[in-house]
Amino acid sequence: MAAIYSLYIINKSGGLIYYKDYGSAGRMDTNDSLRVASLWHSMHAISQQLSPVSGCLGIELLQADTFDLHCFQSLTGTKFFVVCEPGAQHMENLLKFVYELYTDYVLKNPFYEMEMPIRCELFDINLTQAVQKDRVVFLGR
């Protein structure tokens, strides 16, 4: 089972529109989470431009000694990334599932304005259930 530390959603302009902390030891305040999102957006964009491989979509996995950072970018440019324990498996499936929840509960919400912070109770509830049900609900997908 994977320990998920935090989840971020960044709009195509690099603005943090959703952040959820799942009890990591070093909790961050709002300013720190905004900095992390902005830094990741910039690194992701630079990696696309500097890649020697044509058609590179940017960094998908960043591995460190104490955490892994997995990223999924939708076709619209919205980035979903999760910070988890090193060596965690199936994080790509988690991010795709979060994207499905995003499209189902956020984008179909008539009161949601594109590129704005996500304030959707159904999205929060379903995301929490997905992450907490054995910490990885999507292993069988």
Which labels suit this protein?
141 residues, globular, Beta-Lactamase, alpha+beta, five-stranded antiparallel sheet, 20% strand
Q: Strands, helices and their partners?
A:
Elements: E1 4-10, E2 16-21, H1 30-50, E3 61-63, E4 68-73, E5 79-84, H2 91-107, H3 121-132
Antiparallel strand pairs: 1-2, 1-5, 3-4, 4-5
Helix pairs in contact: 2-3
* Helical stretch tally: 3
Determine the CATH topology. Answer: Beta-Lactamase
Helical coverage, percent range: 25-40%
- Spatial sequence of strands, sheet with the most strands: 2-1-5-4-3
CA-based shape: globular
- Protein structure class: alpha+beta
Approximate strand percentage: 15-25%
Question: How many domains, as an integer?
Answer: 1
* Mean pLDDT over the residues: 86
At the first level of CATH, what is the class? Alpha Beta
Cα distance spanning the termini: 15 Å
